[in-house]
Amino acid sequence: MAGSSLQSTFALPPGCSVSDDAHDVLAEREYSEAEHPYRTSFQRDRARVIHARSFRRLAGKTQVFTHRYSDHFRSRLTHTMEVAQIARAIANALKLNEDLTEALALVHDIGHPPFGHAGERALDEAMRQFGLGFDHNLHALRIVEYFEIRYAAFRGLNLTLGVREGIVKHSRNYSPVEHPELSAYFLDRQPPLEAQLIDLADEIAYLTADMDDGIEAEMLHPGVLRRHVRIFDDSLRAAEREYPAAPEKLLANEALKKMLNTLVGDLIRETARRVSAAGAFTLEDVRRAPRRLVAFSPEIEELRREAKQHLYTTLYSSEELQRDLQEAALVVRNLFACWVNDPSLLPPAYQSQLSSQGVARVVADYIAGMTDQYILLQHAEWMKQQGK
Question: What domain count does the chain have?
Fold first, then answer.
């Protein structure tokens, strides 16, 4: 009964959700396909993402902690699964399209190179020497449209327009002037709510998970966290009242669960409030809103920023992680320079793209597709050749 009450309380007008109608514009694919007898278009997209090689490679890509710490910490893949769980719960409460939401959550990080954000920054800096850049959202689009080769009828995954738009716009807006190549993705309008919620589900997932992994790595301590992060302190106090005899580690686990639920619950309530305040009853109303409608309340947004800032000043900036990040950046820079200077060292499949894509883009594509372990093996081989 509690679930029914929640759904009736926060359910948005049905027209705000992306339709499952196979003839809707957002269900269109670049290459026409017959309707499936028992699966919706977005269910098929979800399956295509899960079966993609780029999705499997996420298991070998860093989230925050490299595998030299422990195999117990989150990888980019397990993080993605947590985002999908949170995003689907939010979509269910708001009565949005759950299958589209889950497909977007599962695909949202497939464009990341090895070593997480450190690898992305290093690759972007290397590309800027050629007047280019690296953006993991846009690279994800290249992956699903070009690099995945699984089907006889077409190249890429042939995902729906709705999923491709969400890949591009879930975390930021792109200027139509600066990115005319993205004109098919309604750059002058807001993305659907299903796409909007992915970025904040991502924030919730990594904020709580990074605290969890940081405590496990003994680089964060609950007693210190509670003095600097009010939302964690409130959650820990509630856990202590409920389980006064529990060990500290289990109390921290309970606190993180409560913190996650606080963030998710607030996001659901505030989004429902903003949709109502905007008078949005249709997807077109959502698209024409002056700002994104999926958001935290001002109070919880302040607490979220405080928690994130504390992680930046303590965990992410720690000497141990910074050393890893610097090593990762060096590996990316060295191999990028190596292959740009001698493209003949690239695999034949990448050499064949040099004339159409240019050497810098091809090298970036090659590096971005690597797992942490594979790029480290490549770098060790390069070091051996250099006599280092």
Answer: 1
